[in-house]
Amino acid sequence: MRRYRHGGRPFVWRAREHRKGTKPAARGLDAAALPFWQRPFYNWLTGLLFAVGAFLFLAGSTMTLAPETFGGASTMAINVVFFLGSIPFTTAGYLQHFQAANAPAFHPDPAVASTAAAAATRRRGRVALIGWHPHSPGWISTFTQFVGTVAFNFNTGDALLAPEGWLVRELAIWGPDLVGSGLFLVSGYLAYIEAGHAYWSIRPRDLDWWIVTINLLGCAAFMASAVLAFIPSGPEPLWITAASTATLWLGALCFLVGALLLMRESRLAMRWGR
Fold it and tell me: Which residues cross the membrane (predicted)?
């Protein structure tokens, strides 16, 4: 967070607001000059895709915990639901990373800041598909999240055609689950740092704090689920599978709430200078 004055007016710069383009008027920016990836609809669409993916993971977890409620849903049907949920997760993850990869640099002059990103789109080769901003918590957060969603594509896709053999099955299904969950946890904490500009912050009056905090809780639940999901070569207590699915359900619920709040934030951005 940076506090500065320009033209005799006080301004506050926050990394997440800058990356996503929210509250432009409060930062003295010209909303009309911002590129499409910083517009409310772009953020709303990203939130919608995250919500669809989270809802499908929530549905798959519920079907696993109470299959009789869904007419005795088969393992294949449940795995299909999880795989379908991974696709909008990955799409939203990339949209969010594309936004971070093309976030303009901070400039104390709002007139310059509001046109910098838009001008970049008019220059050949300036739009980045992945980018490289290793000193930006937002960029690292969205990159690790995107890679994590790809890992879940492999995790849920391999589960559709489970390979033979205990070790191969663990490497193909559980391995990507653990990697993806670990990357999600890293991503969630970096997003929390980016929004609060501190390793630890409590800002219950700010919507963005609720978004990143609830998402971080979801990441922690996914990590717990992945650890519990390891299947040993021998027998294991039945409660472990139930606990793994329950924590996955909790994580999906957190992601769904966070996605809905992101959509809410996008709608509010329309009132804040759009």
Answer: 41-64, 76-95, 209-232, 238-262
What's 74's DSSP letter? -
pTM for the model stands at 0.87
Nearest Cα to Cα of residue 251 among 217, 211, 218: 218
Q: Which residue type sits at 269? A: A
Identity at 177, one-letter amino acid code: D
Task: Count CA atoms closer than 13 A to 197's CA, side-chain side.
Answer: 10
φ/ψ bin of 178: left (φ > 0), alpha (ψ from -120 to 50), beta (otherwise) = alpha
**How would you class 1 by CB atoms within 10 Å of its CB: exposed for 0-12, middle for 13-18, buried for 19 or more?**
exposed
Question: How many whole angstroms separate alpha carbon 211 and alpha carbon 194?
Answer: 12
Residue 221, both tokens: 């639940």
Q: Which residues pair with 3 in a beta bridge?
A: 12
User: To which residue do tokens 């924590």 refer?
Assistant: 247
Judge contact between 102 and 128, C-beta under 8 A. Answer: yes
Neighbours of 209 (CB within 10 A): 17
Residues 190, 147 contacting (CB under 8 angstroms) = no
CA separation for the pair 263, 47 (Å, rounded): 5
pLDDT 10s digits, 208-245: 999 999 999 999 999 999 999 987 777 767 889 899 99
d(CA 99, CA 78) in angstroms, rounded, equals 33
According to DSSP, the residues that pair with 10 across neighbouring strands are 5
